[in-house]
Amino acid sequence: MQNQDYDFFIQNIAKIYKEYGHKFIAIKNSQIIGAYNSFNDALTNTLIKEELGTFLIQECFPSKEDCIHSFQCNVMPSFV
Predict the structure, then answer these.
(1) What are 58's strand-pairing partners?
(2) Which pTM does this prediction carry?
(3) How high is the pLDDT of residue 68?
(4) How many CA atoms lie within 13 A of 9 on its CB side?
């Protein structure tokens, strides 16, 4: 389901950005169910009504290219 939601996001990224700006968008079943100022706000508020693993939270940018991050060295994720 999240792949479908991600595809929806990518296909509509410019429209979503125009409407919501730089927000964290909660998407479920190819529908926007919330827009928040931070990832934590998006997750906390979406979990009130939705079950974990049934929705996608995506940071919104003006275009698909702006979502891509390139690193010129080895990168190790840090989980605190």
Answers:
(1) 25
(2) 0.77
(3) 57
(4) 27
